[in-house]
Amino acid sequence: MGAEEKDLRDFKLQPMKCELNFLSKSDGSAILSQGDTVALVSVNGPLDIKSTSQSIEKSTLEILFCSKGGKPSVADRYKENVIRQTCEKAVLGCLYPRTGITITIQELEDFGGFLSCALNCACLALLNSGVSLRHVFACVTCGVDEKGEVVLGGRGCDTQISCVFDSIDKTLITCFSEGTYSEGTYLEAVARCRAASELVFAFYRDVVSKYSNAI
Amino acid sequence: MKVTIDDVVLPGDFCEDIIKAGEKSRVILGPGLRKELEKIFITKAGVLRKRAPNTYWVDSYQKRYVPARGENVIGVVIQKAGDSFRVDVGGSCSATLSYLSFEGATKKNRPEVQVGDVIYAKMLVASKDMEPELVCVDSNGKKGRLGVLNDGFVFKCSINLVRKILNPSCPLLNSLKNEWPFELAAGMNGRIWIKANSMRETIAVGNAILGCEYLTSEEIKSMCTNIASILAGHVS
């Protein structure tokens, strides 16, 4: 549908490329590469699900994470959890009670920062599927280098902090990290990520404007 | 982010023009818009549109059908359940169709509908909390164009493609109908039924519809003449 490349070197974000509607059979899908890391996400729903997992108030989100090897692991469950909590905040589930929305994530290439790529890709797939959302969200990763300084992207750093922001007033909705860091470093990382999330939102708008001219 | 009419919008954007219009008169919020705490928020990605005097909606891309009242849809009968049929319309749950909601149907005189039949019907009830209900008559009890679709060919497509070909400004159907005769029923649930004199012509109509998804009006016209000349055998 829309292929897009954007050079985000000013902010030292990985260049992002994306294609929407990548899969023909699913209700919404997107493939996104951030640098060398590539994720493929498909969204199906709102669908009928078995009555034990139905909720009468809102739709049930189911996240399936497939790693490259195909073997499920505890780390994958953690990633599913992060993605589900973020998506539940964004999806207007109250419009689709007693239904289920399935989000399937396939890892294609992981050269660091895969979870943040998967989150951004999930957001694009949700946009493509036409499910009603409260807001879009963007995930940005920061690294902390040996001198204790915060760098955006932060490939290869031992300590990494990732933040997810909503698009309405850029509030922090999810944060996950690895390694040790001080409180000051954390606050600086959140501020840096918040500034860089603007770029991701601008990228989303670019992708949508590419294809909405044609429909 | 603040947006105005005809902008590309993302979920979470808000529009103050609609609030201002709402102070003077009633406004109608279509798909993709939602009022929350005195603000109008966008819930779908696409283009914000307005039709005078006061209707607003978002043109978005969608494949999965969410039932809406008053829309004409194409469904497949999957079950006969007592005094109603269950019809699959592609939504999250199947719709019911009472056997009395056909033209001239009475308790004695049941309509002839079999499991597997394709039905063109109107959504009478469609709310998020209840299962949708279909009818095959209008409010005068006449069937109009609704009812069982015999023969022909049904295929699925995206919902905005149906909206596009039904748009009066889209030249596709006008160009095609001059080339060869065919019947067509477009359901707002992303299913299209077509029937032409031969298999070749049916496939040509189907391909023409599917091919116009990302084309402009000019490109659609040239594609139609192209397909017609292939069909007539001028080009192999």
UniProtKB/TrEMBL annotation, chain A:
Keywords linked to the UniProt accession: Exosome, Nucleus, rRNA processing
UniProt-annotated location(s): Nucleus
Residue ranges of every copy of the Exoribonuclease phosphorolytic domain listed in the record: 13-131
InterPro entries with a match to the protein in the record: ExoRNase_PH_dom1, ExoRNase_PH_dom2_sf, PNPase/RNase_PH_dom_sf, Ribosomal_Su5_D2-typ_SF, RNase_PH
Taxonomy, superkingdom: Eukaryota
Family label: Belongs to the RNase PH family.
Record protein name field: Exoribonuclease phosphorolytic domain-containing protein
Organism of origin: Loxostege sticticalis (Beet webworm moth)
Automatic annotation (TrEMBL), chain B:
Family: Belongs to the RRP40 family.
Top-level taxon of the source organism: Eukaryota
Record's subcellular location: Cytoplasm; Nucleus, Nucleolus
Domain K Homology: 152-198
Main localization of the protein described in the UniProt heading: cytoplasm
Keywords of this entry: Cytoplasm, Exosome, Nucleus, RNA-binding, rRNA processing
Ranges where the Exosome complex exonuclease Rrp40 N-terminal domain occurs: 27-64
Protein name per Swiss-Prot or TrEMBL: Ribosomal RNA-processing protein 40
Organism: Loxostege sticticalis
